[in-house]
Input
Amino acid sequence: MDFKIISNDEEKIVLSLEMGKEEWDKELVETYEKTKGKFNIEGFRKGKAPMKVIENFYGENAFYEETFNRTLTDFYINYLQENKEIKPLKSYPDFNIDQIGKEGYKVTLTIALTPKVELGEYKNVEVKRIKHSVSDKDVDKEIQGMLNSQAKEVECDVDKVLENGDIAIIDFDGTINGERFEGGMAEDYPLEIGSHSFIDNFEDQMIGMKKGETKEVKVKFPKDYGAKNLADKDAVFYVTVKEIKQKQIPEFNDEFAKSMGEFEDAKALRAFIKSALEKQAQTRGQHETENALVEKIVENSKVKVPNDMIEAQLDAIIHDLSYRLMYQGMSLEQYAEMMQTTVDKIRQDKKADAEKAVRTRLVLEEIIEKENLKISEQDVDNRIRELAQNTNKTFEDFKKTLPKQQLDYIINDIIVNKLYDFLAKENKFVD
Output
């Protein structure tokens, strides 16, 4: 196959490839020999039909696609092996078929290149160590959350009137201009008074109601309400209180502490909570310090990030956002409407984050390569062994069933940890 370089710059290499008739005919025969067993032709046993018969039956281009893909892939692999300095951005190049037929083919091949990174100072960089302290208020807040999670709901007496903090089990039926609307009805709905989970002053108007009482609650939907057909509309809800419950929050005492695990008393549980919060604060501070170091290293380096890489990263960011919204029962379009924006505007707002992520990745990958940071098979096996211990599978069985995507994640996580260990040793952290 003949080829010539059309252009060669920092971003891409463009090649013109041409396969003549003689070589093309040989490659077509090779494809026939490899694939003839796939064809069923009446009058011939499977795999025994001559090449010309298959071409007459399926068309003269019956073997074109397979031959083209195989020969182009072979050329690309050989080209990279002979030019090891080339670092392609994609696993496979872009191409445009200029001509293909009996006489062979001509194709324009575009190899997008990984951007060159000019590393700045990435050793002996001074970074202020970020620390987070844990106060008694932080511990009290955590304890209160624990107590609330263990609270029991107790039904109140029939004479109890609704107050802030009470839980009302209600039926409601909403109307706008006397007409019901979608989502405006519910039965046995638990509503905590004072939680402000309902619009306007809905909950405030319920204060003082008793079990069995029905009341008209008049509200106005906000101008920026997610459902445009309801935004800025006056509504009337007919609300019936079916039950009133109160939360019984336990006391933080020795008895509670013992119910939460192997704690001798409340003092021991409090000490445990404080220790856990301090570990979390330490980990958060460490991550923030590492991020600050990486940001300085990236600022010190120079790299021109291609728009294609930014767009690909943007696709990943938007896909991740869509996936998380899906679990909340919302589409990206609905989220955009609720936020009074558009999907295009969300994408545009995320562009700077995408560029920063790509730039950071390129700089860190360059350090990994320059410092020859590698991981061994033993490193990977050790991590897999740790994960296998959390399952009922042996190391061997767990490794066999490990999806490639998860294995790639494990490998990447190990090399990133090795990189951060390297950076921690080579740079200065000051208090």
